[in-house]
Specification:
The complex is a heterotrimer of chains A (134), B (265) and C (84). With 134 residues, chain A is an all-alpha fold. Chain A has a single domain, classed as Helix Hairpins, CATH 1.10.287. Chain A contains four helices and no strands. The longest helix of chain A has 32 residues. Chain B contains ten helices and two strands; from the N terminus they run αααααααααββα. Chain B has a two-stranded antiparallel sheet. In chain B, helix 3 crosses helix 4. Chain B is globular. The two termini of chain B are 39 Å apart. The chains are: A mainly alpha (134), B mainly alpha (265), C mainly alpha (84). Chains in contact: A-B, A-C, B-C. At the A-B interface, helix 1, helix 2, helix 3 and helix 4 of A face helix 1, helix 2, helix 3, helix 4 and helix 6 of B.
């Protein structure tokens, strides 16, 4: 019973983190503050996706043990049936590996844009960006 | 903490409520559930991938990497192209900024530590990338670990020293484009061979599928001194190529963001 | 059944991550906010480790702990450091 309570506490904590970071992105005027909260939002969403694949009886990550180069013996289907009953769901992990790497590439791009905004408009505050009247 | 206006207070409460509602419905819809085991698709992947007799096999114990490259090859391929385009965006922005370099030199301690850590980080990242099809790891993870090493040199010694070590911008761009091109080639070789020999084959196909397509990559090579070298067909090759693409891409992006924002010369 | 101590640890880090996010939203000094977000990445990698996701853990440690805060510091060079 304790385990379920703790698990749902984690899920709700990550869910509220997603909500709060969305709020922060909208409300806070400083561009880099928005970027910080954006990375937190993507990381929280990634962790939430990992929590989707978890269930209480899961013990092993989605990697069949004993995968060394020399003596790898392919497992029989019976062993795999037992492996799949104790292993965590691999699908969210597959999607999140590439999401993390692309999140970093996107962050580099966004922070370069933020730097250019800061240099050209001499401020990083959204509400202080001077708009040239024609 | 500043004094919060009433509107801000309301906004915070609403966002927390949004978080709680989002999670409540996820739990009610059994997306996040503790009691059920794996969904059928997950069980299919877990049971089929390491099992050589099943049609979906990629003969690798590491289910995550084989699903990344073999079962969902298109998804990963286009994610790699998104990474490629993001770095192209960074390259474009590099042309705009001025960037005045400063020439202060860092003290002895970071210099020594950086010199010690650089080979260690590179060794770890290469090993993570190379055994990606056997134990947790892979091209993406290895590439992002690798990007930390030149970044460390960039912070401590500056760009000129880094370029001295061979991380020149055009070399990085060339290696990156070559790696992504080779991923395309490796993914489509089996299809081209199938078209030529009139045998049904798939794009991004790894192992021969018993009823569907008889051709495919070999899963392992029997070494002359006994023992087998298991590389699970395309998995190891694509992991190595992805490692090159991600590591050169991130090194390039980090060098550029450092020079554009006025890093150390 | 995963040991309760692991769930306890990840529950602690999830709550700490939430507190860190709220602190970041109400923090005037953006530089401090970036440092806090680095610490929060540590909490998330603890959660990833305790929920049996080694692939993600390896990727996330290199990206989240290492490069995220460094790149945000570069973005901060373009403008002022304090908000409002």
């Amino acid at each position: 019973m304790i385990a379920e309570a703790l698990f749902y506490l984690i899920v709700f904590a990550v869910g509220v983190t997603i909500g709060v970071s969305i709020y922060g992105i909208i409300v806070r005027p400083h561009i880099v503050k928005k970027l910080v909260l954006l990375t937190i939002l993507t990381d929280a969403a990634n962790v939430m996706a990992v929590l989707f694949g978890y269930y209480l009886r899961a013990i092993s990550p989605p990697v069949y043990p004993g995968g060394s180069l020399e003596d790898f013996a392919f497992p029989s289907s019976a062993q795999l049936r037992e492996f799949s009953s104790i292993s965590v769901d691999p699908i969210p992990q597959v999607l999140i590996v590439t999401a993390i790497v692309i999140g970093l590439a996107e962050l580099i791009f966004l922070s370069l844009v933020a730097y250019n905004i800061g240099v050209n408009y001499k401020t990083l505050m959204i509400n202080k960006l001077e708009v040239e009247e024609e | 903490m500043r004094s919060r206006g009433a509107l801000e207070e309301l906004g915070l409460v609403l966002s927390i409520l949004l978080g709680v509602l989002l999670t409540y419905y996820l739990v009610r819809a059994d997306v996040v559930s503790l009691t059920y085991g794996n969904i059928p698709l997950a069980n299919l992947y877990l049971r089929a991938v390491p099992d050589p007799s099943s049609p979906f096999t990629s003969r690798s114990p590491e289910v995550v990497t084989s699903v990344i490259w073999d079962q969902r090859g298109y998804d990963t391929y286009f994610e790699t192209s998104v990474l490629f385009i993001a770095i192209i965006g960074v390259l474009y922005l590099a042309g705009l900024g001025g960037g005045q370099g400063n020439s202060s030199v860092s003290t002895v301690i970071p210099r020594v530590i950086a010199k010690i850590l650089f080979p260690v980080i590179v060794a770890v990242s290469v090993s993570v990338a190379l055994h990606g099809h056997l134990t947790p790891g892979g091209g993406f993870q290895g590439g992002s670990i690798f990007a930390v090493a030149p970044f460390l040199y960039l912070l401590v010694f500056g760009r000129r020293m880094l370029e001295g070590k061979g991380f020149r911008a055009n070399a990085l761009v060339f290696a990156r484009s070559l790696a992504v091109f080779l991923i395309t080639v490796v993914g489509s070789i089996v299809l081209v061979v199938g078209l030529l020999t009139g045998v049904p084959a798939f794009l991004f196909q790894n192992q021969p599928k018993p009823q569907l397509s008889p051709i495919g990559y070999p899963a392992y090579v029997v070494l002359p001194w006994g023992g087998i070298f298991l590389f699970s067909g395309t998995l190891m090759i694509l992991n190595v190529l992805e490692f090159t693409a991600v590591s050169t891409g991130f090194t390039l992006a980090l060098v550029i963001i450092d020079t554009v924002t006025g890093g150390r010369e | 059944m995963t040991p309760v101590i692991i769930l306890l640890l990840s529950a602690f880090s999830a709550v700490m991550a939430l507190i860190a996010t709220i602190k970041i939203v109400y923090e005037r000094d953006v530089l401090k906010a970036i440092i806090i977000s680095g610490v929060e990445s540590l909490f998330y990698s603890i959660i990833l480790a305790s929920f049996l996701a080694p692939d993600l853990l390896i990727a996330y440690i290199a990206v989240g702990l290492g490069l995220n805060s460094a790149i945000l510091l570069y973005a901060l060079r373009g403008g002022e450091r304090y908000e409002e």
